[in-house]
Design brief:
By secondary structure, this protein is an alpha+beta fold. The strands form two sheets. Strands 1, 3, 5, 6, 8 and 10 form a six-stranded mixed sheet that branches. The chain has a five-stranded antiparallel sheet with strand order 2-11-4-9-7, with no helix packed on it. Strand 5 and strand 6 form a beta hairpin. The chain contains three helices and eleven strands, in the order αβββββββββββαα. The protein has helices at 2-23, 198-206, 234-256, and strands at residues 49-50, 56-62, 67-73, 77-86, 94-101, 107-108, 110-112, 116-119, 125-132, 149-159, 168-179. Residues 21-38 have a biased composition (Low complexity). Keywords: Signal. Residues 1-23 form the signal peptide.
């Protein structure tokens, strides 16, 4: 009975420790704030404007322009990209699309969401959404899985009438992520996240006497740094499962071993 009580106490402790980890799977309250982000957008991958998750980026442009932003995404996150384009008062039907690319500039498919929408003539705005797959800590070289690093967002109009080209529009972009927890954890990690300039910075960190300027092409990273999936609540649930199995084994042994030889009965030869 003492062993059962000890295992029961350990299981209860693991359950209490797992509760905060399970709570982390919900979006952070800070990510839903109304903090302001950058007020411009880039025109290519190299000039993409960096925006932190949870901030709203805005930009003014002309119809027909390509707008680019970039944001960091770490292992275990499932990013959601939302874009709103405010159109001029008078316009014909316009089709807008938001595309997301990873650090290798591979176009990432949306799990769900209205990635492409057509605004009716005279519509005040059009809203787009793209929910990406969960970012994995590691993947096979031939796979197209999302990996930790910088992600690029491209917003543009696909089909326009000649009269609408060059008309002023304003765009808003917001990226938020949900932490998927241990359910999305995989074995293996990347040596470095897919961030532009990471290889150059790593080489210069190794050179002690190198005073040359560091090429920083992407400066944003997650608030807690790049974890690369080294920790997840899967460790807690695995330990809890092992403790539960040990508890079940002890209980089964006590139920099946019987009460032993009655007193006064000699052992059999």
């Amino acid at each position: 009975m003492r062993a059962i009580r000890v295992l029961g106490t350990a299981l209860l402790t693991l359950g209490l420790a797992a509760a905060p980890a399970a709570a982390d799977s919900s979006p952070s309250p800070e990510a839903s704030g109304e903090a302001e982000g950058p007020t411009r957008a880039g025109t290519s991958f190299r000039t993409a404007t960096e925006v932190e998750q949870g901030l709203t980026a805005t930009a003014r442009a002309s119809t027909g322009d390509y707008l680019y932003w970039s944001f960091p995404a770490d292992a275990g996150q499932r990013p959601t990209v939302r874009a709103t384009v405010k159109l001029p008062e008078s316009h014909a039907a316009e089709t807008w699309q938001v595309d997301v690319y990873d650090g290798l500039r591979r176009r990432q498919a949306c799990q769900y969401g209205a990635q492409t929408r057509t605004a009716a003539p005279g519509a005040p705005s059009v809203e787009l959404e793209c929910v990406l797959r969960t970012v994995r800590a590691w993947s096979e070289p031939w796979a197209d899985d999302p990996l930790p690093g910088t992600y690029y967002v491209r917003l543009t109009a696909l089909r326009l009438s000649t009269s609408d080209l060059g008309q002023p529009v304003s765009a808003e972009l917001r990226v938020e992520s949900q932490d998927m927890g241990g359910a999305a954890a995989v074995d293996g990690t990347l040596s470095e996240p897919l961030v532009p300039g990471i290889a150059i910075r790593a080489e210069q960190d190794l050179a002690e006497d190198d005073d040359s300027p560091t090429a920083v092409l992407a400066g944003l990273e997650p608030e807690d740094g790049w974890t690369s999936g080294w920790w997840s609540d899967r460790w807690i649930w695995t330990a809890a499962g092992g403790a539960l199995a040990a508890l079940a084994g002890v209980a089964g042994y006590r139920l099946t071993r019987g009460s032993g030889r009655p007193p006064g009965v000699p052992p059999t030869a």
